[in-house]
Amino acid sequence: MKKGKKGLASALLTGLLVMGISLSAYAEETSGISRGDFLKMVTTNLNISATSTVQLPKDVPSDSTYKDSVSTMLERKILKGFPDGSIRTNEPITGKDASIILGRVLGFKDAESINRLKSEMGIDWQSQQILSASEVEASLSKVLRNDENAVNLMAAVQKEMENIHSYESQVGMHMQMHIQSSSELNENNVNSALHDQSGTDKNTMSLKMDVEGKVQLDDKQGMMEKMTMKNFMGSGDLDSLTYMVPEGVYTQSPGMKTDKQWINMSKGMSTFDQLMKLQKANATQISSLNQKYFIFRDLGKDTIGGKPFAKVALYGKIPSLQGLLNGTQSLTGMGDMMSSLPSEGKETIKNMGVSANIVYWIDEAAHRIYKADMNMSYTMPAVGQAPEFMMDMATNMSYSKYNEPQTIILPAEAKKAPTMEEYMAQMSESLPQAGQK
Fold first, then answer.
1. Which helix (DSSP H) or strand (DSSP E) does residue 276 occupy?
2. Comparing 202 with 41, which gets the higher pLDDT?
3. Is the Cβ–Cβ distance between 433 and 276 less than 8 Å?
C-alpha cells in the first residue's frame, strides 16, 4: 500500500513538473516577443552592428542584452523611441510596431509599411497584438536575406560598366518637398504655384515639381544633362542645362538680368574623371557598399516589347550621407566638397538620410540596365537656423544607345561663367540695401 501511495505521489509530481514546463513554454510563446527581442532578431538577420558610439536611451543600461541591437538601430535611424526618450525593450511588441520598424529597414514610409509588407513581402502582422518568435524569425529570414541571383546579376551589371563608353537616358521625375521651420512659412517665401496649400500648419510648407529630361554620357567627352521643370513657379516651363566635362561642372539657368545665365559649379564638386573612376574601376567596392545598406530581391522576369528582362529590386536606407562619404571619399572627392561648406551646411548634409526602393529591368544576356524606377526619400534635420527638409522623389529612367557616338561639347560662353561665389556676390549687390526702396 505504501509503495502504491509512493508511486502515485511520484507520478503526480512528475506530471506536475511536466505540466509546469509545458505551461511555461506555452506561456512564453503566447506572451509574444519583446521589442528588444525583435530588434535583436532584425540585427542578427541583417548581420549588422553599430560602427560608432551611440548614446543609449535612458531605459537601456550599458549591460543590457539589447544594448548592441538598440545602438545599431539608433545609428541607422530605424528607431525613434517614445516621446519620453525610452525604447521599452522589455515590453511586448505589437504587430503594427514591428511592421513599421521592418518597413524602415526596407526604406518604406511608416504610413505605407503595413500595406507594402503585405503586398510585396507576404507579411501581415498589423492585426496581431503579440508576435511569436517562430513566426517573426521565419519572416525575417525570408525578407532580410539577399537573393543570390539578384546580387550576382547586379554585380555583373556593375562589372559591365567597365565596357560601357557612352549611353543616353530619358528621365522623368516627380518631386514633393516638405519644409518644417520654427517660424511661419507662407506663399511670400515660396511661389504659390509650387506651394501645396492643403495643409493647415503655418510652420510647414510643401512644394511640388515635375521634371522631364535627357542625359547623355561619353566617358571621354563628359556628361550633358538637359532638364525641363514643368510650369516652374507658375510661369511656364523652365529649361536647365548642365555639363560635367573635363573642364569642370557648368550649369545654365535663368539669371538675374538675362534669360540664360551660366555658372561655374566646379569648386568642391567631384570631377568627371573621378565619377568615371567610381563607375568603372570600383565594381567590387560599390557592390559591397550597396549590400551594406540594401536588401537585394529577385522579382523574376518581365516581358517588354516581346523581350524578357530580369527584375531586381533594392530595398534599404542610408542613415547619413557621412557614412556614404566615408566609403567613397577617395573616389569621388566629396570630402573636398564638404570641407568647402559652412558649418551649418556641413552638419545638415552630413546627417542627411536617404531611404530608397529601386527596381531595375536588366538585359540578362548583355548585363545592361534597360530601365529603372527609383523611389527615394531624403531627410535633412534642422540645424541652427536651417529648417528641417524632406523630399520624396520618384524617378523613372530608360537607357539606350549604349556605346553609340555622342557629341558633348561645352559651349564657349560657359567657359567664361562666374563661379558660384561670384554669382552669389552679384546677386547680393543687385538686391536693395536696407533703407532703400
1. helix 272-280
2. 41
3. no
